[in-house]
Amino acid sequence: MSTLFKQLEPAKPAIDLPDLNTLLDAIKFNEQGLIPAIAQQFDSGEVLMMAWMNREALDETLRTGRVCYYSRSRGKLWRKGESSGQQQRLKSAALDCDGDTLLVQVDQTGPACHSGRRSCFYIELADNRVEINAQPLIDPAELYGKA
């Protein structure tokens, strides 16, 4: 754990806190320079998706208010909704106590999942069986213009 995050454990809100850049510099990005980011709908608490951010994506997200991730498959920044129109507007961002996971509370436009579902977490595992717990809101072919 970063020394800075250890020092923050007894800190009181708004007292003895580092500036934002100092804190961002202390984030524990993995070997690929990434941190997991969990997206949660700000008003309902619904967990929408998990993606990765690098420092550049995090900086852009904080600066613009539009959530930006890092696409490992494409090897570049991915501004949520750039091809589907289903954007995420940042409401708040928080790091966990170890500085190695990010929670972004967002206002999601339409489905968050490439499958056309509201949430990426629609494959339910229960009692030795698998169930689909949500239907697509939008056909993915329609969502991405592949019809």
Automatic annotation (TrEMBL):
Q: Where in the cell is it found?
A: Cytoplasm
At the top level of its lineage, which domain of life is listed?
Bacteria
The reaction(s) annotated as catalysed by this protein in its Swiss-Prot or TrEMBL entry are: 1-(5-phospho-beta-D-ribosyl)-5'-AMP + H2O = 1-(5-phospho-beta-D-ribosyl)-5-[(5-phospho-beta-D-ribosylamino)methylideneamino]imidazole-4-carboxamide; 1-(5-phospho-beta-D-ribosyl)-ATP + H2O = 1-(5-phospho-beta-D-ribosyl)-5'-AMP + diphosphate + H(+)
Q: What class of enzyme is it?
A: hydrolase
Q: Which GO terms describe its molecular function?
A: magnesium ion binding; phosphoribosyl-AMP cyclohydrolase activity; phosphoribosyl-ATP diphosphatase activity; zinc ion binding
Q: Any idea which positions bind Zn(2+)? A: 97, 113, 120
EC annotation from Swiss-Prot or TrEMBL: 3.5.4.19
Q: Which GO terms describe its cellular component?
A: cytoplasm
Tagged with keyword Ribosomal protein = no
| Residues of the Phosphoribosyl-AMP cyclohydrolase domain | 49-122
* GO annotation terms (biological process): L-histidine biosynthetic process
Q: Where does Mg(2+) bind?
A: 96, 98, 100
Cofactor(s) needed for function: Mg(2+); Zn(2+)
Please give the pathway this protein is involved in.
Amino-acid biosynthesis; L-histidine biosynthesis; L-histidine from 5-phospho-alpha-D-ribose 1-diphosphate: step 3/9; Amino-acid biosynthesis; L-histidine biosynthesis; L-histidine from 5-phospho-alpha-D-ribose 1-diphosphate: step 2/9
Q: What does this protein do?
A: Catalyzes the hydrolysis of the adenine ring of phosphoribosyl-AMP.
Name of the featured protein: Phosphoribosyl-AMP cyclohydrolase
Q: Which gene name belongs to this protein?
A: hisI
